[in-house]
Automatic annotation (TrEMBL):
Highest taxon, organism lineage: Bacteria
Name used for this protein in its record: DUF4375 domain-containing protein
Organism for this UniProt entry: Sphingobacterium griseoflavum
Length: 235
């Protein structure tokens, strides 16, 4: 009886190991790491996103199609897969949502489709904070206003106001240059000297000061630099 039980356990172990080794491919992406986890396991997103680097795209259109697909929350682990497919740099955001005078509109340049994809990313709440804000900050660094979807730091200011502690913790790990770049992109535009930016500064400075006074100082510096450049262009 003991031998039968031991044999049964051994067979189950071999089958389980084989399941873990199996990979499934979707749009050219290895999704095995995304498949073999329990969705309510808190380690799931961390382990899965650690394998985001295996996700590659032949072109921006393929990335766009993947993002649209995983906005469907009925799909297994849709948010994690959407997050993995989302761009990692400002340049990749331009390639996906912007407009190039030579090559024309990017795959998600159209409205409201492109705006909805960005808003979906900006409202994600299922991704661990450290991973989520790392990517959010990465896509904002060196960002500049280009109208349409390439504007207002892709909604990062809203997260700063409503999830201040977590956003500031991630910002605090970045260089001063990177942080100023992010803050500047929040306020950048054709006429940054406006009531919206004035109100944003008045609202954010106290919140940033409470979490990290240095971040508040960097935001003020970015604001003053942007206003000084605006004044210079007027003369």
């Amino acid at each position: 009886m003991k031998n039968v039980l031991a044999y049964t356990i051994w067979i189950f172990f071999l089958i389980s190991c084989n399941d873990v080794r199996q990979s499934t491919t979707n749009n050219g992406h290895d999704t095995s790491a995304l498949k073999n986890h329990v969705s309510n396991d808190p380690r799931y997103a961390v382990d899965a996103i650690a394998n985001c680097s295996t996700w590659t795209f032949d072109n921006a259109k393929q990335r766009a199609d993947t993002l649209i697909k995983y906005m469907d929350k009925t799909l297994e682990h849709a948010d994690v897969k959407f997050f993995c497919a989302f761009p990692q740099t400002f340049q990749e955001m331009q390639d996906l949502f912007g407009y190039d005078p030579k090559t024309g509109a990017a795959p998600l340049y159209s409205y409201p489709e492109g705006k909805n994809v960005i808003k979906y990313f900006a409202s994600l709440k299922t991704i661990p904070n450290a991973l989520y804000y790392k990517k959010f900050i990465d896509i904002c660094i060196d960002g500049v206003w280009e109208a349409d979807h390439i504007t207002e730091c892709f909604g990062f200011a809203d997260r700063l106001q409503h999830d201040t502690k977590a956003a500031c913790e991630s910002l605090s790990k970045r260089s001063e240059q990177e942080v100023r770049s992010v803050f500047r992109f929040i306020m950048d535009g054709p006429h940054p000297d406006n009531e919206y930016n004035d109100a944003l500064q008045q609202n954010l400075i106290p919140l940033l000061t409470e979490q990290n006074p240095k971040l508040a100082m960097l935001f003020s510096e970015a604001y003053r630099e942007l206003m000084a450049e605006t004044d210079a262009h007027r003369h």
